[in-house]
């Protein structure tokens, strides 16, 4: 049956400045934590390509945007690099201003709406040295950066996002050692989470005060957390995971308040962050207009069964365990669960508990390691990705039919891009990037298939 999507639905793909631009040492850009880490500890990374190169969007953007148009995208979500735009934290780098102007203007000329995010894990090293998200000075510096972006580009960019997946910065940077600064400390992690939510609210305040003709929001990776059973303790464990990893940002962003159960938990564990009353007012008064949802996989949770060593420093997983749902379908090429219904459950949650705020899928996608093996007749035959996107779109369509206020779908990603510790291990794009051939692009089967869906606004 044909599934027609709403009029003016945004069809696109998502990426970020640090994962696509490259050119990280030229034209005045200052280093980020990723540049620093790749230089000082390259052994942590898969492969030899670092953030200085990536897929060369900085130089290839005109061709790249032409390719977007070829597959009928009408929107593209990426980010601005703080370290490129304000290398010393204060002064606009004219070359960066010029670059983003050219990208935005080219997108608009091709009918591709720019959805612009301000922070995608790419803390400038200068700001990290001041304490990163633990520091109030950095919160203020970020607000200045946001204001600068609104002033320079706010006449043409109508959809802004303050952060991509802020909980990932908390988890990977301050609990699990996947991102610099590699801290393992739950109290510091809570402070980082609070300061990020505050920084987001401050940027939203500045945006609304500037009275620009557009909307602003935040991008969150929502992970529906399903309990193993109806057993009270399994349900409580899954609820706690939902509180810690979803509602810790979703509630302040949409409702302007933190869930009382989360405050109780944080207080009971002596993890309260430092804050002032005016911070809470700022969060309460500056909620989002629109929400970006990144969805890859759910969490399957059960009560904690293995005892915790009392001498061990507190960590979230002391209060729950992940379990392997016997019916789960795994992506054999990346190791993540594939559960398309999760997108529907997220939509229902937003409708029932978050006032049906306008939202869109800002990322959803399927990573594949060693994707070259699917190359045949000059094209990656990624039927698995077609199935993946089709199944997710089916559930999304059903949710929209039932009243979900979803205005777009963006796959991760447009052209295979660089990724954090994995660099180019997992490929995600509608376009294949051939690194051996100056990052040449070749459309994949999924890109061609999707070009029809986007053109017709219909899933067949
Ligand atoms: C999201 C991030 C993206 C991207 C994606 C795929 O969490 O917002 O930046 O990297 O995940 O993940 P990975 O590249 O680790 O496979």
TrEMBL record:
Entry GO CC: cytosol
Q: Which GO terms describe its molecular function?
A: beta-glucosidase activity
Single GO BP term? carbohydrate catabolic process
Q: Which Pfam families would you find in this protein's record?
A: Glyco_hydro_1
Q: Which organism is it from?
A: Isobaculum melis
Q: Does the keyword Hydrolase apply?
A: yes
Q: Which InterPro entries match?
A: GH (IPR017853), Glyco_hydro_1 (IPR001360)
Q: Which Gene3D superfamilies match?
A: Glycosidases
Keyword terms of this UniProt record:
Glycosidase, Hydrolase
For this chain, the family text in UniProt reads:
Belongs to the glycosyl hydrolase 1 family.
Q: What is this protein called?
A: Aryl-phospho-beta-glucosidase
Question: Can you tell which superkingdom this protein's organism belongs to?
Answer: Bacteria
